């Protein structure tokens, strides 16, 4: 009797707690629709949670990338891993863009919309960001990758510049030999401290998710989503197809099963989905892939770089969104024009990396080049947050698989450990969290 009572009162896993927070947030948000005081309170609580995570993300990236690159050892091996990673990212981004265009061409979501009957949202903040981000063009993007002041880049959250500095710093540490060991030890200690802080912060993740979802539903309401519900459903359908079929095929080629990977990273996926923030899931995702059997040096390199360069969910949304708006305005886009749009999105999506609300800004920049009125973008700005949740979750799945693929290709993935850890996740999730 005592044993069964103890089992009955076991605390649910973090993933279960987050899901409870998600559904409670939806319910409370529905009850408090347009209650400005409640919305402000929940937004503030959610912002505190996001800020706590953002506080430690950049120190984790700098320390882990530095240690990871130093652990890789030779410039030749680093170059090989880097080239593989970038090629893989570009191929999967192209596939994701093609999936978005394919779904848009098959189901024609824009033709079912009465463009004049939908409520428009204020997108002035996105317009100014898009103008600033696209002003420099390709060379502006390349120049901004090189930090003139790393502390300024850290303060501004310029992820690309931080990654470039960390790569050079890691190479420098490797080049000086034994004298650099003390820095590797120091950075390893910094990473461990940051991950310990992550563990503390994650205890309030269910509260943060509850507040963020509650504020979103209370502010937007459910009725306002109905006119664009078909577009939202297609976007999620395209993302699910990409994960299960496209990523599933890649996983199968490299002797994985995508469903097993999803089972392992379910907490990170739920966290990314509910908060619509890749940053929140990034630290735990890195830890999770190391527990799964990927060498720390690979995980510490691929996941931070993927955070900037491998945004599969965002790519699906952008290509589908452009086609949706073109159809709504009865703009004829030939196959040739759609291929050009895909190429433009491949460039602009990288150029906007690190820009706030990057996916919507990319969509805004690209749509304007094919004659879609600015007011058109205002129509889907209201549901951007809802779609953002899905595309962020897909981004996390894509980066997790990329880490496993690169690890397998470099013989830096312990499959026995992966099978053992998967059994732990399935049989005893609480124990798997602590491993």
UniProtKB/TrEMBL annotation:
Chief location: membrane
UniProt topology in membrane: Multi-pass membrane protein
Record-annotated membrane-spanning stretches: 12-33, 45-73, 85-107, 159-177, 197-222, 228-254, 297-317, 360-383
Gene Ontology cellular-component terms listed: plasma membrane
PROSITE patterns per record: NA_DICARBOXYL_SYMP_2
Locations listed in the record: Cell membrane
GO molecular function, one term: symporter activity
GO biological process: dicarboxylic acid transport
Protein name: Cation:dicarboxylase symporter family transporter
Organism: Acetilactobacillus jinshanensis
């Amino acid at each position: 009797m005592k044993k069964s009572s103890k089992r009955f009162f076991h605390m649910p896993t973090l993933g279960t707690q987050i899901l409870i927070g998600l559904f409670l947030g939806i319910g409370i948000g529905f009850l408090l629709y347009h209650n400005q005081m409640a919305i402000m309170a929940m937004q503030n609580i959610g912002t505190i949670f996001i800020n706590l995570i953002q506080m430690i993300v950049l120190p984790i990236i700098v320390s882990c990338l530095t240690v990871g690159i130093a652990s890789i050892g030779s410039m030749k091996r680093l170059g090989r891993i880097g080239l593989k990673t970038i090629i893989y990212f570009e191929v999967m981004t192209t596939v994701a863009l093609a999936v978005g265009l394919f779904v848009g061409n098959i189901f024609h979501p824009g033709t079912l919309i009465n463009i004049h009957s939908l409520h428009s949202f204020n997108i002035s903040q996105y317009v100014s960001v898009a103008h600033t981000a696209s002003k420099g063009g390709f060379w502006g993007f390349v120049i901004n990758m090189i930090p003139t002041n790393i502390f300024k880049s850290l303060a501004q959250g310029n992820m690309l510049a931080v990654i470039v500095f960390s790569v050079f710093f890691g190479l420098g540490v490797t080049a000086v030999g034994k004298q650099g060991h003390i820095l590797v030890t120091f950075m390893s200690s910094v990473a461990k401290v940051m991950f310990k802080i992550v563990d503390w912060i994650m205890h309030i993740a269910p509260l943060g998710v509850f507040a963020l979802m509650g504020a979103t539903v209370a502010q937007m309401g459910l009725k306002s989503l109905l006119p664009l519900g078909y577009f939202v459903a297609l976007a999620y359908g395209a993302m699910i197809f990409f994960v299960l079929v496209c990523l599933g095929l890649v996983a199968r080629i490299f002797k994985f099963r995508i469903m097993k990977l999803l089972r392992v990273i379910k907490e990170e996926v739920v966290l990314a989905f509910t908060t619509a923030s890749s940053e929140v899931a990034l630290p735990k995702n890195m830890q999770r892939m190391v527990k799964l059997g990927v060498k720390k040096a690979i995980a510490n390199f691929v996941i931070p770089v993927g955070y900037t360069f491998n945004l599969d969910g965002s790519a699906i949304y952008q290509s589908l969104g452009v086609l949706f708006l073109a159809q709504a305005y009865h703009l004829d886009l030939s196959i040739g024009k759609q291929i050009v749009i895909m190429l433009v999105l491949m460039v602009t999506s990288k150029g906007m990396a690190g820009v706030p609300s990057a996916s919507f800004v990319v969509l805004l920049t690209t749509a304007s080049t094919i004659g879609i009125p600015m007011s058109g973008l205002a129509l889907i700005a209201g549901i951007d947050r809802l779609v953002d949740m899905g595309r962020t979750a897909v981004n996390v799945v894509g980066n997790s698989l990329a880490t496993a693929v690169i690890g397998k290709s470099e013989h830096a993935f312990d499959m026995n450990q992966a099978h053992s850890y998967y059994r732990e996740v399935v049989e005893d999730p609480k124990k798997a969290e602590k491993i």
